[in-house]
Design brief:
By secondary structure, this protein is mostly beta strands. The protein has no helices and 18 strands. It has a four-stranded antiparallel beta sheet with strand order 3-4-5-6, with no helix packed on it.
Length: 207
Amino acid sequence: SDTGLLLYRKKRLIQTLDVTSVATNNRYSSICSDADGHIFAGGSYGLLLFDENQGRDNSPVGYKMREPQHPFSHNKIRRIKENPYTGEVWVETSAGIVKYSEQDEAFIQVSDMHRSNAFDLLFEPDRYWIASFSGLACIWKDQIIDEVTMADGLSSDLVVQTAKDSLGRIWILTVDQNIYLYNPKTLLLESFRMDGLESKAGWEYLL
């Protein structure tokens, strides 16, 4: 909110998370929590890490570029997501993807550097998909094993969001507000249209 970050549980305000002690002028755009009680908040000027286990005396750790004690790859953070299969928290920045190591209390660069400007991540048990300026790519063991780009029928290579449905299809949202359905098994890509809507209807978000 305009006054900072507020922690709620069961519709009740638990505490106000202090952001002024280590970070100012940060416009927060992504928040994520993990099973270990960590809360990650990132935006335009770095990332804050809160530990709920510390209670009301919780003071966040600030991660920023050129920060001696807590360095970070880039101050611009697009999205923070937890990998549901491993519990690891991944952060998409303007300089690539990093993930948090609780053992090192640091963020480690993900070995894959094929997509430095990622906008979204979709996790699967043994692989993951990256939505970026270069389309949608599937990574397995640090190798690209599948890609969806304009060459396959997308209206733009800038993919801003992706999701998976119960049928195993990958939903793709491009920057020009078009949605596509991709079947990784059949490699079939089709444009999404809803009956009764104009063909030029724009889409802004996938849930």
